[in-house]
Write a structure and sequence with these properties.
The complex is a heterodimer.
Chain A (H helix, E strand, L loop, with lengths): L4 E3 L2 E4 L5 E6 L6 E7 L6 E7 L2 E4 L8 E4 L6 E5 L8 E8 L9 E2 L3 E5 L1
Parallel strand pairs in A: 2-11
Antiparallel strand pairs in A: 1-3, 3-8, 4-5, 4-9, 5-6, 7-8, 9-10, 9-11
Chain B lengths: L3 E4 L2 E5 L4 E7 L6 E7 L6 E7 L4 E4 L2 E6 L4 E6 L8 E8 L11 E3 L3 E6 L1
Parallel strand pairs in B: 2-11
Antiparallel strand pairs in B: 1-3, 3-8, 4-5, 4-9, 6-7, 7-8, 9-10, 9-11
Classes of the chains: A mainly beta, B mainly beta.
């Protein structure tokens, strides 16, 4: 597609529920990032994929957070047993290059509200 | 790890005036500094970036300056227009993340820019 697509755009989950957030990067993009953006804050790094390999997951806040990109294209961020502090916008971004610095393209995000 | 501080948190200007947003960073190894514009309900959009081998870059009404010695970089918007109203984020790359160089970014806290007609 023309841009990074994320779904759903909005998700309301009851505390304790599991959720799955999907990211469709730009076709052919090697690098894929997930960021978490709390209300009124800048995005914070969660995890990075180069193709299907998860090279950095140092930003995942707990073992309830899990991300995958099994075929090197679509990625899913899964949050188990959601808690209120998980409420945020989850942003996905992709880039055609690995190993150099380029401004990558963000999707519009999934706004997760845990009630 | 990298820490990026951004000021001011809000900025209000009249149409046609200039706007300046400033950021400082902590990691002297950082060498890539992008600026993003985020409109309500949308993801951040790259508007300009600068690498450490240059001190200034300009693109029409937007310019960025970098002072590596002071670990300081700034966004300058001239002849502001109401459509410039948005949240602006600076960011820096953490090139020491486990020895990888894949473009992981640390963002500032954001500046809400309002341009009054």
């Amino acid at each position: 597609g023309a841009g990074v697509s994320q779904s759903p755009r909005y998700k309301v989950a009851k505390r304790g529920q599991d959720v799955a957030l999907r990211c469709d990067p730009i076709s052919g993009h090697v690098s894929l990032f997930w960021y978490q953006q709390a209300l009124g804050q800048g995005p914070e790094f969660l995890t990075y994929f180069q193709n299907e390999a998860q090279l950095d997951k140092s930003g995942l806040p707990s073992d309830r957070f899990f991300a995958e990109r099994p075929e090197g294209s679509v990625s899913t961020l899964k949050i188990q047993r959601t808690q209120q502090e998980d409420s945020a916008v989850y942003l996905c971004a992709s880039s055609p290059i690995h190993g150099t610095y380029y401004g990558y393209t963000f999707g519009s995000g999934t706004r997760l509200t845990v009630v | 790890g990298e820490n990026v501080e951004q000021h001011p948190s809000t900025l209000s200007v009249q149409e046609g005036d200039s706007a300046v947003i400033k950021c400082t960073y902590s990691d002297s190894a950082s060498n890539y500094f992008p600026w993003y514009k985020q409109e309500l309900g949308k993801g951040p959009q790259l508007i300009i970036d600068i690498r450490s081998n240059v001190g200034e870059k300009k693109d029409q009404r937007i310019a960025v300056t970098l002072n590596k010695t002071a670990k300081h970089f700034s966004l300058h918007i001239t002849e502001t227009q109401p459509e410039d109203s948005a949240v602006y984020f600076c960011a820096a790359s953490d090139s020491n993340a486990g020895g990888t160089s894949y473009g992981k970014l640390t963002f500032g806290q954001g500046t809400i820019l309002t341009v009054h007609p």
